[in-house]
Every structure is written in structure tokens, then in C-alpha cells.
């Protein structure tokens, strides 16, 4: 592959630069004051310290965890807080960003909350905290919905439809059962399509405890889960979305698949096309190849970009799924393994022209999120 003739030599030559997965680091203490009845009384949010059971008054985290020790837990890596407008501004300056879609941290585990009504309460509480604390200061973000209560999630989308700073609907997909192609989730997709908002699907490694509890019991280290789980669960969700004709039922709805790497995408597209050619009755609503629906309605965020030190692999992989049109730059900041803004650029410059690089770094995101 020969280098293209380019004017783009650094991120300073790109505009806009949009991060499609910049995480907030909200804590329970941020969210609990926004809980409405009855859970504000049940959890006694104004009197937490008097229970005496554990710090904060709770026997356990309200958001389940798989219990693996991450590099952050062991002190081998540090992460920054992003819980205020000042934190967001500092992050955007550090990363040389023009814009970002702010996504949750703690609430990536919302789909694991073992109380459906409480999960719905957390959904509304997080969205109100997000608007009051962060987005009212001029930033853009994704609202969360709770897969446990699709009808309530649809109502939440309708409630926030006029909030111009809300640019997407995020389903925390980690540990969600059944997978996201099933009919029970149609109200979420219908409401999002009517609102003109893309649906983001973001997994969390801790979701293994929900969907694969037997396999979880056999894991002893975080890396055993973190490497395969994100992409494996995304394939599971997308597979059921295709068999149940979600792109056909909701033709004006875009999906953004987050934080799962890129190598699996061309494999999945080709594998699905091959299977579909022999088993079309398993996906009776599809009117064209599954990979064509993926190219038309699915977008992918870049981080974690495996193979960043091998430009030939990276660029060839991106080409195989038409990534110049549907790959969107992301950092995953402030997680310990986040990508700096220029990490991807040097590899892209060996294969892609300026327009294609600009698509990946911001133009596609501007269109998908109506920025």
C-alpha cells in the first residue's frame, strides 16, 4: 500500500474531530439524589450514612460487578474523573476534540440491575443528572434506556425528544437477556426512530456474569473476559437483530456499535452472508444480503483499535467493512486503555485519502448524530 497524497499530517488538520465514546464517570452518589419515589424513600437517599451496614448505607453495589480485578483496581493504571463540565472541558482540550458524544460509565451496567423498576428509576435519574450537570453547559451526550423495561424506555425517549443536547439513545448491552433483536425491544427502536436518534449499543465486560454465568465461574483474570466478551456479545445482538429483521422494520434507524474493536466486523459480515445464502428462511424479512444492511445502518466506533502497530493489517481490515463510510473515531477516555486522538491517524495515512480520514474522524459522526 502506497501512501496517499495528503494535506492531513496531524489532527490539527482535521475539522471537526468528534469523539464518539467519551465516558463520564458518574458514581452512585451522583445518581441517587435524582431518584424519584418510591426508590428515594426505599433507599433512604437523604439519610444514607445512618444505616451503619457499610459505607453509604448499602449492603452491596446497586450496580452488579463480575468481581474481576482490573488494572485500575490493582493500581497498575489510573483514570481521571469526568463528572463535571470542567472535567469534560479538560478532557476535550487534552484530546484535541471539537465535539464528543458523552456516554455513561457506571450505567454501562444498568442492564444488570436485578430490579426492573429500580433500573427504570436509575435510567431517569441518570438522564436528569446528565442534563442538569453536564449537557446544560453546552455538551452533547447519549441518554440511557433500560432494556429491562422497554415500554418505560420508550416513554423516556419521548420525554426527552426535545432536548437538543441529547444526540443518541444508548442501550447498555452488557449482560442483557434476551439479546437485542427480540420483539420485546421494538418499543425502544420505534421511539428512537420517531425521535430521529441513533441507537448506541455498548457492552461491559462485567456483563458476562449476566449472560454467561457458567463461563464467568471459569474465569480467573480480567483479560480472559475483556478480550473476547465485547465483540462476542455484539455479534450475538446483531445476529438476532438481522434474523428478526430489525433494519427492515426500522429502516430509518441507525445503530452505533461501540468499543468492540474492528477485526471481527468483516468476519461477521462474511460469515453471516455465507450462512444466509443457505438459510434464508431463518431471516425471512431480509431483502438483501445481511452485510448490506450492516453497511447501510450500522456504524462502529474505533476504540480499542487492535493492531495499531501494524498499519497494513489495520487498514486492510477497515477496507474490508467499508470503514471509510461507517467507522467513527473514539477514544474511550478516561478508561485505562483509551486511545489518544492521533493514535489511529498515522496508520490511516498509509492507505486512506484526506476525505476518508475526515469521515472517520468526524464527518460521519456529524451526520449520524446530527451535530
Automatic annotation (TrEMBL):
<dbReference type="Pfam" id="PF04909">
    <property type="entry name" value="Amidohydro_2"/>
</dbReference>
<keyword id="KW-0456">Lyase</keyword>
<dbReference type="GO" id="GO:0005737">
    <property type="term" value="C:cytoplasm"/>
</dbReference>
<dbReference type="GO" id="GO:0019748">
    <property type="term" value="P:secondary metabolic process"/>
</dbReference>
<protein>
    <submittedName>
        <fullName>Amidohydrolase</fullName>
    </submittedName>
</protein>
<dbReference type="InterPro" id="IPR032466">
    <property type="entry name" value="Metal_Hydrolase"/>
</dbReference>
<dbReference type="InterPro" id="IPR006680">
    <property type="entry name" value="Amidohydro-rel"/>
</dbReference>
<dbReference type="InterPro" id="IPR032465">
    <property type="entry name" value="ACMSD"/>
</dbReference>
<dbReference type="GO" id="GO:0016831">
    <property type="term" value="F:carboxy-lyase activity"/>
</dbReference>
<keyword id="KW-0378">Hydrolase</keyword>
<dbReference type="GO" id="GO:0016787">
    <property type="term" value="F:hydrolase activity"/>
</dbReference>
<feature type="domain" description="Amidohydrolase-related">
    <location>
        <begin position="80"/>
        <end position="371"/>
    </location>
</feature>
